[in-house]
Design goal:
single chain; mainly alpha; Rna Polymerase Sigma Factor, Chain: A; Arc Repressor Mutant, subunit A; globular
Amino acid sequence: MKLSADYVRYDDEKLIRLIAQSQEEALVQLYDRYNRLVFSLALAIVNDRATAEEITLDVFMRVWQKADTYRADQAKVSTWLTHIARHHAIDVLRRRSVRLDEFAVHWEDLLAGAESSEQDPQESAELSLRRERVHTALTLLPDDKRQALVLAYFGGYTQHQIAEILKQPLGTIKTRLRLAMQKLRDFFRNEEEMKDKSVAPQSTYNIKKEEQ
């Protein structure tokens, strides 16, 4: 379907209002903006591309049916979509009786989620840089800590569920998550310190030039 220029220019909230009025073009535009994000999140949880594609279609079908329930004062549209996607993906796993320890969360796919087409090039570049930093930080974690962290923050699982998935005592999972978060904080702190050190000499040079 070829969209009119008006729909392409509308912001997310306007599109949701139009979807609530059963305007199909608005749903198509919202799908174009966010289908990759929803798909990446679904894939990260179910680890199956065909299932993730089904979930993505189901999510936008739910948007079509429940657009009038969206509340802009409670969440951005993108947050609302990912909330629907995450809960639906977990429901699919449970309905199909898939053992949670038989799938892996592909956080690389999640981190590669699409930016909204509304973002300008600078915003897209900044998001790409942030994803790259998070990706780098996660690769530095030991496998056991990275797995627990990804299940918690990208998979949406509780500490008790993670303990069941990984077949580890709850206390062990709590320790892994705490250490993983500490390592990430240390990584970003060290990165900021290195950035400051790299900037300092140039700043000093500029001051000296101005004094001459």
